[in-house]
Amino acid sequence: MADKTRTVLIGGEAGQGLVTVGQLLSKALVRADWRICVTQGYQSRVRGGHNTWAIRFGAGQIGAPSETVDLLVALDQETVDHHRGELASHALLIADETLDPRGLPGLRVPFARLAAARHVNIAALGVVGTLLGLPESLMAGAVEELFGKKGTDTAAENRRALAEACRWTLSAGASFALPDPPLPGAARGMLNGNEALALGALSGGLRFLSFYPMTPSTSIALTVVAHAAALGVVAEQAEDEIAAVNMAIGASFAGAPAMVATSGGGFALMVEGVSLAAMTETPLVVLLAQRPGPATGLPTRTGQEDLEFVLHAGHGEFARAIFAPGSPDECFLLARKAFFLAELFQGPVFVLTDQFLADSYRAVDSFDVRQLPAVRAGYSGEVAVPYRRYAITPDGVSPRLLPGQTHHLVIADSDEHTEDGHLTEDLAVRERMVVKRLAKVEGLRWEVIQPQLDGPGGGDLLLVSWGSVGAAAAEAAADLRDRGTVAASLHFSQVWPLDSERFLGVLKAAKRVVFVEGNATGQFERLLLRETGFAGAGNVRRFDGLPITPGYILRALAAAGIA
Length: 563
What we know:
The chain is of the alpha/beta class. The chain has four domains: 5-172, Pyruvate-ferredoxin oxidoreductase, PFOR, domain III (Pyruvate-ferredoxin Oxidoreductase, domain 3), CATH 3.40.920; 190-371, Thiamin diphosphate (ThDP)-binding fold, Pyr/PP domains (Rossmann fold), CATH 3.40.50.970; 383-447, no CATH class; 452-559, Rossmann fold (3-Layer(aba) Sandwich). It has helices spanning 18-31, 77-83, 111-114, 120-131, 136-147, 152-172, 193-203, 218-231, 241-254, 264-280, 307-312, 328-345, 355-359, 427-438, 440-446, 470-482, 504-509, 523-532, 550-559; strands at 5-14, 35-41, 48-58, 69-74, 87-96, 106-109, 188-192, 208-211, 234-237, 258-263, 284-290, 321-323, 348-354, 361-365, 452-454, 461-466, 487-492, 494-496, 512-517, 538-541. The strands form four sheets. It has a seven-stranded mixed β-sheet with strand order 9-8-10-11-13-12-18, with helices on both faces. It has a six-stranded mixed β-sheet with strand order 2-3-1-4-5-6, sandwiched between helices. It has a five-stranded mixed β-sheet with strand order 15-17-16-19-20, with helices on both faces. Strand 12, helix 12 (328-345) and strand 13 (348-354) form a beta-alpha-beta unit. The model has no long low-confidence stretch (mean pLDDT 95).
């Protein structure tokens, strides 16, 4: 498949303004009607280290990164040396005139003459944006939004640096081959996965957030905090993750839809709280941004290593649902759905993302939140007297009155309990309560989101993926179709519970099924085998901390003799 996209990679050290250039350029591209997919690479340090911001852009939908670089923007020598082997045959290098280009074609830019040292990143924006055909006014608008509040002097200096860089680039006479231009469309926003999760939670009725900062989940909390005052949300940075999860359970018990945001090591500390939410039948939403482990692992890299951990987190047996969005749009919608399911079935619901999706900006169409209702906590109908918080019902869901909101006494207990909430050692009651809580699994199964099939069913090859890998698998399948292979992809945005009636026929109809996921042991592949008995013909697994790309999938399939 001819690639109708281009990739700009900006590289440098932390502290050089790399993220600023990347964000401004990404925003300008979106406002020029391009679609984008951003991949960030950074090290766990405040300054120094080799960091990158890669923007793949084109006219059509893009959900996965490319491994080929078309425009390399080097803010330091390491960027030139480290990425020169990734350049396409037509690629250009943009580098300061003091750097050694290693014979690569491009522009050697006199940044010191174009701008003061603290504004070199804005000058770099001007050079790159001009090469990409972006109007100076569009870039200036993005710069003004970011720096306009920092005073007139700073704003004026940024405008001068941008204007001088644009002028210099035009006079240099350089050109860059752009892909087919996009059609003018409706105004789009730019969101990464974590921002979309936060906004989805807010639109779904979030009233209380507790968290302890942990990469790559922290920006979820920061996005909520930015809107908390305006929306009447309480956001609390706790002293640790144990306190965070128990705060959220307490808030939810009182009637405030609540969530926690964390990552692997932080969630490990929350596991006892998950069981508490299950036993007390208290709604709880957990957003977990995966990163490679075990222990601290690679805290700023990506992976899909926590599925089995989340599936079995918590002692005892109880119902849960696990979502795994594959795009910012799905992040928004599934964060909302998580609140409704948590309230409906009175227990923990999880949303799994990862560092790649968490930090990956995309162009997104507007969400009309005015048409989207928010969850309402608690039961508002008539209840039998005396009120029994844990009344045994056919679907396992009991009427949940909020303490202090009615004349009824609400009793809850973390021990096994009777229907009215009092601790019990009656083993017959214990058995009935376990059956009651597990009855919710069937209700959750009715709410399962069907996996998305992209391409023809019953073909030569089916690529099965979950979470953030979905777009890469779909693009790889499309590439194979262009080569003559009848290929398709099946993307799971919900990984538990599973309803095999909705997808098993699709799996069995394909001649070969290959599972694609970001871990070493094939966690989702094993889960499907356990639940359905279906075994695939192969797998593509990546666990080096980098996101799975369409090229990575195609190379792995070729190496295995599959395609």
